UniProtKB/TrEMBL annotation:
Transmembrane residue ranges: 12-31, 351-373, 379-401
Domain of life of the source: Bacteria
Pfam families, sorted: AAA_lid_14 (PF25601), CHASE2 (PF05226), Sigma54_activat (PF00158)
Keyword Membrane among UniProt keywords: yes
SMART domains assigned: AAA (SM00382), CHASE2 (SM01080)
Domain Sigma-54 factor interaction: 519-748
This protein's name: Sigma-54 factor interaction domain-containing protein
């Protein structure tokens, strides 16, 4: 696995960042596939808000003068003579209108039948003398398409030249007003902006345009006040319209052309002034095909009315703002990272709940910001990305969890390999320290014996002293490194177990299912293990169960069988440690009659007995290497030869294996075949020791007491509080088995109706008969070699740990082991491998013992090398190995004599 993948699998924040980016990318792609639809969804909150909110009052300086059917009836339904507009403009100006916008494109000539050039001249003259009059110009492309040539060039009208064109969003809804259309010399302000500039008395050429805003300096903003007006626009110069109402016309003060004409005809100047004075007037004279555009509220409207909305938005200065594309992107990214982090940090319901919560909070913030701050936040991208992440979260979470498990296992392997190297280094260093101590002792002795060599020996002793100090420091450093690695390994193991957390809702269900298989537990790690067991049982995968003795490995193996489709077929349990090495093949694979002495008939082996069912290979870690290779072949193709048979036998069996040894360590240390290990670890189930799940102890105790009572046909005996306390604080090296035995014994021994703490006979309690007399039996002077050896084995031949356990000093333990090694070498006739195997007791300790043996033997050979005579060599050995118990020195003597004999 590459470093990048490792980093990704380990770091939730990195996963969140990468996945958030991917989700945003996918959201963008989805958006690109259906842009109009997504645009409509993006603006749905804004559109809804526009529709439902209480609408702002229109600016009082705004007046709409429109055509209506009565006007059409009076002046005709089609286009009107432009002299009519000229009359209106002059009258409105005279009545005090601050700016007038008309919808007649003055760039195009009037048709001859409607007054022609004369009417055009009248209108232009009226416009010229009416102050700010803005009219829609035909933009260059429109002129090309529509044919009629514009009046060239009406220079005097240029300041009022504007455009009516609205901006359509992708979903063909108008939400924004574009303040400038076109570019370069053909650029035109929109009619609304021209009129607003007229009201504020800011010449168009003084308007400043910046990125993100348009500024009108020294504007007369009403009440005689002057100030700058800054209009917030997006990158394309668009301003979000703050619509006055759902009915675009309804709230804006308006009058009809006929009303105005009547006032003119009646010369009712007062009413005209009252209606028009100080206002920007939008004059609609053109017959318009209705409807033209759609607004967010869903209704249709005209371009002139849209300009009125723009003018209203500008005059009220009540802006609705948008974020820049960058700001939108960053916001969506931040939200997505948050949701992704929640979804990957907890791959169960908690992740979904937290992620959804974040999304809901964001939506609430978006609504509040629109309603209170008038700020439109992005909608589609963050929501799509967040939903994608929530869906993908649990899926990817599972994948990442699996990869993380693989990584943890790889790391464990590497730590174990380092540990092996460090252990070996420690053995060398330990032996070096021991040899130096002996050399130093010897140098001191010779110093006191020979005065002539005193100075020489003193220098040698000083050198040795220094070397010893260095070696001891080195040994101490290695020990610390080993402790650190052991700690690391422990943490990795714990992480491996907790890598796939259990959902709360499954817990009760699993507990009940466990009980049906005879497994009493309420421990999350055990229940998680059982969940995996259940899944694995259905498939034919090979199962490896690990855990200390008595933790329930066989119970679990039986559960695998019971929950598998082979449940009705045989379950055959084989204890690999209990099979005698000579009978290994015959027991497992069977034999044919006459194949060896005593084979009186054909006999099926365990594999054949388990045909179509399950074979449980217990204590697989205690298998010798040569037997491991034999087993490997069967596991590979389920085919073997019965002892003495000439044709192979093929079986259909499901393999479940168990061990309390660390097989991965075995692979690193070379006592377990790697290929066999990988064959076995299809599904690994680890059972935690009882001391790591003390909450199970009362449960187990209750079940054990109930069963004991059933056996003795008596009512169950309850435990006293003190007894329960004692049970839970016990370390239970033998785990559930030991607990069960302890309780069975207590039931038998209890005298009252209650089991008390003393009935339990736990080590440490005053009446205990189970106290191990090890300390007494293992005094240095006693000949309890076997007990010392057992203690060494228990401490993996670590001298320091063994010395601590026995309460001795380290050199005493070293001398004992050295003596035992020499004894084993003599008894195995010099066969180092055999001697090591006899001392190690278990394959997992073989390598350590071999190294010790090699060193001790080499040291002995080095000691006697300078001597030609066996007796002289023995005298030196006597001095050198003076701390060796006499019974062990006999073996040194034998080895030395054998060596000299072989040299002769
Ligand atoms: N969770 C449990 N609930 C009830 N009984 C249990 C549980 N775990 C173990 N036991 C009991 O403890 C005893 C030992 O269990 P088992 O033989 O399955 O352990 P093991 O791990 O295979 O031991 P070993 O490694 O020594 O073979 C059995 O009597 C078993 O019923």
């Amino acid at each position: 696995m590459s470093t990048a993948t490792r980093l990704f699998v380990r770091n939730v924040w990195l996963q969140a960042l990468v996945m958030a980016l991917c989700a945003l990318l996918v959201s963008q792609l989805i958006w690109t596939a259906a842009p109009a639809t997504f645009h409509a969804i993006e603006w749905a909150p804004y559109d809804t808000w526009i529709r439902l909110r209480p609408h702002p009052a229109p600016d009082p300086h705004l007046l709409l003068v429109t055509r209506d059917p009565a006007g059409d009836h009076q002046f005709g339904a089609g286009q009107w003579d432009r002299s009519l507009a000229a009359t209106l403009i002059t009258a409105l100006h005279d009545a005090g209108a601050t700016a007038i916008g008309i919808d007649i494109p003055l760039d195009l000539p009037s048709p001859p039948n409607l007054g022609g050039a004369v009417s055009d001249a009248l209108l232009i003259e009226a416009a010229k003398s009416a102050g700010t009059v803005a009219y829609p110009a035909v933009l260059a492309p429109a002129i090309d398409q529509e044919g009629p040539s514009p009046m060239m060039p009406p220079q005097h009208l240029v300041p009022g030249k504007s455009t009516l064109q609205p901006v359509l969003d992708l979903d063909r809804v108008v939400r924004r007003g574009l303040l400038y259309h076109g570019s370069g010399s053909s650029e035109l302000p929109s009619l609304g902006l021209s009129l607003a500039a007229g009201v504020w008395q800011v010449p168009l050429e003084r308007i400043e345009r910046r990125s993100g805003s348009i500024r009108l300096p020294h504007a007369q903003i009403g009440g005689g006040a002057t100030g700058d007006v800054t209009i917030p626009v997006d990158r394309q110069g668009r301003l979000l319209l703050n619509f006055t109402g759902p009915q675009s016309l309804a709230p804006i003060p308006s009058a009809t052309i006929l009303d105005i004409f009547r006032l003119i005809e009646q010369k009712d100047n007062d009413r005209l002034v009252a209606l028009v004075n100080g206002k920007a007037v939008l004059l609609t004279t053109q017959p318009r095909p209705q409807p033209e555009r759609t607004v967010p509220s869903g209704e249709d409207t005209t371009d002139m009315l849209l300009q009125a909305q723009l003018l209203h938005t500008l005059l009220t200065q009540d802006w609705i703002r948008e974020l820049t594309p960058w700001q939108r992107g960053v916001l969506a990214f931040v939200l997505s990272v948050g949701v992704a982090w929640a979804a990957f940090r907890w791959t169960d319901w908690r992740g979904i709940l937290l992620g959804s919560g974040l999304l809901l909070v964001y939506l609430a913030v978006a609504v509040i910001s629109l309603a209170l701050l008038r700020l439109v936040l992005p909608f589609v991208m963050p929501v799509t990305a967040a939903l994608l992440l929530l869906v993908a979260g649990s899926l990817l979470g599972q994948i990442v969890a699996t990869r993380r498990l693989v990584l943890l296992e790889q790391d464990m392997l590497s730590v174990q390999q380092q540990l092996v190297a460090v252990r070996e280094a420690l053995i060398y260093q330990e032996t070096a320290v021991e040899s130096l101590e002996e050399d130093l002792e010897s140098a001191r002795t010779s110093m006191s014996h020979s005065a002539s060599k005193a100075a020489e020996s003193a220098t040698l002793a000083a050198d040795l002293q220094r070397m010893l100090a260095e070696a001891q420091a080195q040994e101490e450093a290695t020990r610390q490194r080993m402790d650190a690695l052991e700690g690391q390994l422990h943490n990795l193991r714990a992480a491996t177990i907790s890598a796939a957390p259990l959902r709360n809702i499954e817990q009760e269900q699993l507990r009940r299912e466990c009980e049906q298989s005879g497994i009493v537990t309420n421990d999350p790690a055990m229940l998680t293990m059982f969940r995996d067991l259940k899944k694995g049982a259905r498939s034919p995968v090979t199962v490896l169960i690990t855990g200390e003795a008595g933790t329930g490995k066989e119970l679990c193996a039986r559960a695998v069988h019971r929950l598998s489709p082979r449940a009705a077929k045989p379950f055959v349990a084989v204890n690999m440690a209990a099979i005698s090495p000579e009978l290994f093949e015959s027991e497992l694979f069977g034999h044919v009659r006459g194949s060896f002495t005593g084979a009186h008939a054909d006999r099926k082996g365990y594999f054949e007995l388990a045909h179509l069912g399950t074979i449980f290979l217990d204590e697989i870690g205690d298998l010798r290497l040569d037997h491991q290779s034999k087993l490997l072949r069967v596991l590979q193709d389920r085919t073997f030869y019965r002892v003495g048979a000439t044709s192979p036998t093929t079986v259909d069996v499901r393999i479940v294996a168990a061990t309390n040894k660390d097989l991965q360590r075995g692979v690193s240390e070379g006592w377990f075949r790697e290929d066999l290990y990988f064959r076995l670890k299809g599904l690994v189930l680890h059972l935690p020791p009882l001391r790591e799940r003390t909450a199970d102890i009362p449960l187990l105790a209750e079940v054990c007491l109930r069963e004991a009572a059933q056996k003795s046909h008596q009512p169950p005996m309850p435990l006293s509080g003190e007894a329960l306390e004692a049970l839970t604080t016990q370390s239970w090296k033998g785990n559930v088995r030991e607990l069960r035995q302890c309780l069975e014994q207590a039931v038998a021994l209890a005298e009252g109706a209650l089991i008390t703490a003393s009935d339990l006979r736990l080590p440490g309690t005053s009446t205990s008969v189970a106290d191990t007399p090890t300390a007494a039996a293992l005094l240095p002077d006693s000949a309890g070699d076997l007990a010392v050896l057992n203690q060494l084995r228990r401490n993996r031949f670590d001298m320091q740990a063994t010395a601590r356990a026995l309460g001795w000093d380290r050199s005493t333990v070293t001398q004992r082991l050295k003596g035992l090694c020499f004894q084993a070498l003599v008894e195995s006739a010099g066969d180092q491998a055999k001697a090591a195997s006899a001392l190690a007791g278990a394959p997992s300790l073989l390598r350590t013992v071999e190294l010790k043996l090699m060193d001790y033997r080499a040291h002995l050979m080095d000691t006697i090398a300078p001597f030609a005579d066996v007796e002289e060599a023995l005298v030196d050995c006597k001095r050198r190995f003076k701390n060796l118990p006499e019974r062990h020195f006999r073996f040194v003597e034998t080895l030395v004599r054998r060596h000299f004999e072989s040299q002769a």
